[in-house]
């Protein structure tokens, strides 16, 4: 993959003139040489190349990318080899701002950069220089990709990256971090990152993922400077899969009903009881975060309970078929004790109460990443309470990025060029 560097083809008219010109001169060995060829062979290209890292630079981070600026010409190629002459794999970003090695470079290693360009007369300029990478740093920080490559997710599952919770990426470094988080979706879907805080960010496309999407993710953070003497530990790569079938759930406090949809068609309706006064259910677009066939709910550590059960709002109880929707503890789960209230009134502690049979059915139906839209409770889902990427409008989501918005046009397919890595393609 990568940018195709294509030399301009000489027109038939010019080619003809060159053929005629070859009759004007020949070498002592009988080889025809035109006067124009002799002139071109000795003429210096007007194109001037400026390459980063600079020639003879030392202590270069192993996350370095190659950049080449051309004055009075056009870049036609860029490559990298180690001191043993081995070619380093990589490709240009979509915006052609830099050439990205496929893996972090080696520490304490010399590399040779070769960049070529042509001027308006197709005369080639060649730049070759050497740089050396830094020693392995002692203070390195790992980041993790939450998503697994082993399962298929619902179409509302964001790509999620976590740094250690005790660490916050400095704001002035977040654009550089974001640039090194590569996402390539097939089929192609423009997307962006959103920082919910300094150690957690999520990636999503403008709309939900298309069914059957295959999403290649590379956290290219190995050796990346993170401020001070801290550096990224390693790269992380994975492929995230989205299920072929589109499933979704809607809950309405007005009707006290839950409706399950498959590929846009309603397939199941069930009565629910939502959060009572003082313990409201949230309205918003949530997703199924976790699924547990058996779980224990403990509210005795909440304010006013003082670690004790009082049988009303402070309790410890076992539940079945629990599906987490928020960090604050709102679930869809079986609640046989409230069957008489389901479809009629709200008596829960904020959860979506349903019968045992319905709870088993919806548990088997959903996937991690299935969207659950709750309506008309009068209480909005708090920002970041759960995986809330799709609870934000696209415009709101972009406000959490430190990079320019992605190009939403699909020009690549019509141009015939192959995809290359970008930060939010």
Summarize the structure.
The chain has 425 residues and is mainly β. The chain has helices at residues 12-21, 35-42, 174-179, 356-365, 394-398, 411-415; strands at residues 48-52, 67-71, 74-82, 90-92, 99-101, 110-118, 124-132, 140-141, 144-145, 152-153, 159-162, 181-186, 191-197, 200-205, 214-219, 231-232, 236-242, 247-252, 257-262, 265-271, 284-287, 290-298, 316-324, 331-334, 352-354, 371-375. The chain is built from six helices and 26 strands.
Q: Separation of termini? A: 15 Å
Class based on secondary structure composition and strand pairing: mainly beta
| Mean pLDDT across every amino acid position | 88
Overall shape: it is elongated
| Lateral arrangement of strands in the main beta sheet | 20-19-18-26-21
Query: Low-confidence parts lasting 5 or more residues at pLDDT below 50?
Result: 1-35, 409-425
Q: How many separate helices?
A: 6
Question: How many β strands by DSSP?
Answer: 26
Assembly type of the shown chains?
A: single chain
Radius of gyration: 30 Å
